[in-house]
Amino acid sequence: KSRVVSGNPPAAAQVKGPAIQEWAAEGVLANIDAVAKAEKWDANLPKVVADVMKYKGNYVAAPVNVHRVNWLWGSSEALKKAGVASMPKTWDEFFAAADKLKAAGLIPVAHGGQSWQDFTTFESVALGVGGAKFYQDALVKLDDKALASDTMKKTLETFRRVKSYIDPAAPGRDWNLATGMLIQGKAGFQLMGDWAKGEFLAAGKAPGKDFLCAAAPGTANAFTFNVDSFILFKLKDAGAQKAQGDLAASIMSPEFQEVFNLNKGSIPVRLNMGMAKFDDCAKLSAKDFVDTAKTGGLVPSVAHGMAIRPAAEGAIKDAVSQFWNDDKMSVADAMKKIASAAKTK
Questions:
Q1: Does residue 113 surpass a pLDDT of 90?
Q2: Of the candidates 166, 157, 158, 154, the residue with the CA atom closest to the CA atom of residue 98
Q3: What crossing angle do the helices spanning 91-103 and 115-135 adopt, rounded to 10°?
Q4: DSSP state, 191?
């Protein structure tokens, strides 16, 4: 920010979601349509993702990857010990499995107490309870009716029930330490984006064997996305402009998309990529990414800055975390707090 204000902007910066449009509205971003046209970005990106990269119809950012946020991770060791045969597909199945884990003396749900982690769980519950349309209406459009609906009430009740299965040491815990509880076989489940997979792989664990991945309960036909991207600033030097174009083209190239995402745990943002080198969790993610892009089930993650203005996002996250942390707060009061936070400008 200080470099842009002083007239010496960087060539590129990692920025994502609605913040891209906020920068573009300041008139400081370069139009990269020439590269996007030459490289056929419109054909190689789902429209819902391409739109995030554009301002007034022109590309101003290059997408790097796609993280799926609505994952449920399972510890094979813990689930086996508790007699849980498969990953739950519904919230009822999830709570039944959680009860078995509890009875076996294990922590059913590994969680870290930070507002973005609370909201990562909350948005997966909302998507699983209400479906993609409710998710869009309530959490992306911030529609008053949806925020005051029975579906929102049921979402908060289910969310509170999830909370009853975490351990007392959760507040302040980092997400990767929560993943570590699954790796050690101390906890059964974690609701977390696919960056958690990087922790399992780094610990030498194999997907399908040591750990399991499934869409969060009720969300198999939906996909909450978190796309990392680079915005490119207006520069005067022709050589620097050419380098920016080369950077943008490289980021979207199949070679970069493969090698970067194999290391990050995410999947390529390009639609026509070969997935032969990727593991089963990534292959499922890629298939669901393509399918949901056609059905309207591909929705932006609120928890990860992809959906709404930063001010409203922060206020809603705070309201949801207050409810998560205060067992005495009623669902009705939480609904009022969230609805009022949604109006934050």
A1: no
A2: 166
A3: 150
A4: E
Q: 284: number of CA atoms within 13 Å, CB side?
A: 17
Q: Could you tell me if 290 and 224 are in contact, meaning their C-beta atoms sit under 8 angstroms apart?
A: no
Closest CA to 267 of 194, 316, 164, 166: 194
Q: Check: CB of residue 63 under 8 Å from CB of residue 49.
A: yes
CA–CA gap between residue 110 and residue 167 (Å, rounded):
7
Percent of the chain with pLDDT over 70: 100
| CB neighbours of residue 57 within 10 Å | 8
Measured distance CA(13)–CA(231) in Å, rounded: 6
**Token code pair at residue 195:** 């960056």
Alpha-carbon torsion, ordered 283, 284, 289, 293, to 10 deg? 120
CA dist 57 to 24, 103, 252, 327, Å?
12, 55, 19, 46
Decide: helix, strand or coil at residue 259. helix
- 19-46: per-residue pLDDT in tens? 999 999 999 999 999 999 999 999 999 9
Distance (Å, rounded) from C-alpha 341 to C-alpha 312?
Answer: 6
Residue type, 19: A
Angle at 21 between CA 252 and CA 248, to 5 degrees: 20
Question: Among 254, 262, 302, which Cα is nearest to 279's?
Answer: 262
Per the structure block, which two tokens stand in for 298? 């591909």
Residue 229's H or E segment, with its range, is strand 229-232
Instruction: Tell me the whole-structure pTM to 2 decimals.
Output: 0.94
| pLDDT computed for residue 29 by the predictor | 98
- Owner of token pair 């869409």: 215
Which amino acid does the sequence have at 54?
Answer: K
